[in-house]
């Protein structure tokens, strides 16, 4: 996106000087008038009148071009200069299985997660983030990027019905690891979120994915989402295709999530409410501090030369017209 500015806008105040100059010309015209008796009845006299008018305003055009040139109009673009080797790359691996619509968080687990994860992204302006979703299979929504708005937009659009049913924790973790393993960031983090247990037998085991993360210096923070006891969960669909919710026991494989975190030198958290989930994200935000410094680079395109050429061109035209016109009258 191009932005426009004047480097020295105060020079534009010189246009105020046009006021007395204009008043002087008007008063002079009232006193003397414009007498062109020798051309009044000539053919093409309208062209001569146009030349006279151009000669009258030429000084204003020349001065205007010079003033604008001194104010230095220019456009600029802004880019960021950052050393990615000093930042943190964070991949969010989000369980989007149907049970994430359970209503033990307000209004449900997935919506609560979206809101809190978006706040987390907004608090990491200097880090690159990405997003992986998984249920019975895993899918990369956003590779690690510094364009946080893309991550936020995809978080808002999380849909528990877009992937195969089930919960394959190891698949979600391994896909996230695959995206981070070649990163040159000083720190590589995966935030692994789930509300259940692994239900896909032939999927990548979570322990194997955790070893892959460890071998690639990737730390995993795992989060178990769901209250203790029972919660309203979607268990079937009625004849109209609407979800039917039933009180079901909450089952989270905390031992597995804790093992994954410990293997990678990370931590396991349990979030049983909206507030505790937000506290988890805030704690992770405090644990992983980025020391990357982002500087802005301004790329300018100057236009003052154009107006200098306009002023020079008008000056030459003015001189030629005066010479030709007065020579013609003489």
Can you tell me about this structure?
With 330 residues, the chain is an alpha/beta fold. It has two domains: 1-15 and 47-79 and 297-329, no CATH class; 88-291, von Willebrand factor, type A domain (Rossmann fold, 3-Layer(aba) Sandwich). It is 42% helix and 24% strand. The chain contains nine helices and eleven strands. The chain has helices at residues 18-32, 45-71, 109-122, 148-156, 169-180, 206-215, 254-263, 274-287, 304-329, and strands spanning 3-6, 73-81, 88-95, 128-134, 138-145, 187-194, 218-225, 230-237, 243-249, 267-271, 295-302. A six-stranded mixed sheet has the order 5-4-3-6-7-10, sandwiched between helices. Strands 1-2-11 form a three-stranded antiparallel sheet. Strand 3, helix 3 (109-122) and strand 4 (128-134) form a beta-alpha-beta unit. Helix 3 (109-122) runs antiparallel to helix 4 (148-156), helix 3 (109-122) runs parallel beside helix 8 and helix 6 (206-215) runs parallel beside helix 7. It is elongated. The relative contact order is 0.16.
């Amino acid at each position: 996106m191009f932005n426009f500015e004047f480097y020295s806008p105060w020079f534009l105040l010189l246009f105020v000087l046009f006021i007395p100059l204009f008043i002087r010309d008007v008063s002079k015209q009232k006193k003397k008038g414009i007498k062109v008796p020798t051309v009044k009845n000539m053919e093409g006299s309208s062209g001569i009148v146009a030349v006279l008018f151009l000669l009258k305003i030429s000084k204003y055009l020349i001065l205007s071009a010079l003033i604008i040139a001194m104010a230095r109009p220019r456009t600029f673009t802004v880019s960021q200069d950052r050393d990615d080797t000093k930042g943190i790359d964070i991949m969010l691996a989000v369980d989007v299985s149907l049970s994430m619509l359970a209503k033990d968080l307000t209004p449900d687990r997935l919506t609560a997660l979206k809101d809190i994860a978006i706040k987390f992204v907004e608090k990491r302006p200097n880090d690159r983030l990405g997003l992986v979703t998984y249920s019975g299979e895993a899918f990369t929504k956003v590779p690690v990027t510094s364009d946080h708005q893309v991550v936020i937009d995809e978080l808002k659009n999380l849909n528990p019905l877009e992937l195969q049913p089930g919960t394959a924790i190891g698949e979600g973790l391994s896909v996230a690891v695959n995206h981070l393993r070649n990163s040159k960031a000083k720190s590589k983090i995966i935030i692994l979120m789930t509300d259940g247990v692994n239900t896909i037998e032939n999927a990548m085991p979570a322990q194997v994915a955790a070893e892959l993360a460890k071998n690639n210096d990737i730390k995993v923070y795992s989060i178990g989402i769901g209250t203790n006891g029972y919660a309203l969960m979607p268990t079937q669909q009625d004849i109209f295709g609407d979800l039917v919710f039933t009180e079901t026991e909450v089952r989270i494989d905390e031992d597995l999530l804790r093992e994954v975190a410990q293997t990678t030198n990370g931590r396991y958290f349990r979030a049983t409410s909206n507030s505790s989930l937000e506290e988890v994200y805030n704690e992770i935000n405090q644990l992983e501090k980025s020391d990357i410094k982002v500087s802005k680079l301004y790329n300018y395109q100057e236009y003052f030369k154009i107006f200098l050429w306009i002023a020079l061109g008008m000056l030459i035209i003015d001189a030629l017209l005066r010479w030709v016109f007065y020579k013609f009258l003489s």
